[in-house]
Amino acid sequence: MAAPDTFRAFPVRLHPGDDLRRALEATVAGEGAAAAFVLSGIGSLRPALIRLAGAEEVTTVDSDAELLTLSGTIAATGSHLHLSVADVQGRVVGGHATYGCIVRTTAEVLLALLQDWHFSREIDPATGWAELVARRRAGE
């Protein structure tokens, strides 16, 4: 029987001015992990840059925005992060978190670093997009 997969819970607090996506990718790489999930994330952003479902252009929320949810996968070859934010009127928008989402006051994120796995993103002919490929690390 194979040993159960292990992951390490890793709480992170990002600071004002951090690029949300770049900072999380750097954190995962800095921990020597090749695969991670974002389990939860809250905080505030300004601006929030979001690619809506099926859209090619990025939508910008250029006001103080509460980060309500954050989840996804992080790999050395690319991340797939979804978020939802509420603007100052309480309107909520969500989609793909792009580079340029800047932490306003804080972002508190719980990562799951998967020690036995390597994530990559490779073009899937069925979708035309770079999709997640999860492989066990050599020797696992």
Automatic annotation (TrEMBL):
Domain of life (superkingdom): Bacteria
Keyword Aminoacyl-tRNA synthetase carried by entry: no
Please name the InterPro entries in this protein's record: PPC_dom
Kindly give the PROSITE patterns that the UniProt entry links to this protein: PPC (PS51742)
Please report a single Pfam family linked to this protein. Answer: PCC
- Entry keywords, A to Z: DNA-binding
GO molecular function list = DNA binding
- Ranges for domain PPC come to 4-135
* SUPFAM superfamilies xrefs: AF0104/ALDC/Ptd012-like
**Protein name stated in the entry:** PPC domain-containing DNA-binding protein
Give the organism's phylogenetic lineage: Bacteria, Pseudomonadati, Pseudomonadota, Betaproteobacteria, Burkholderiales
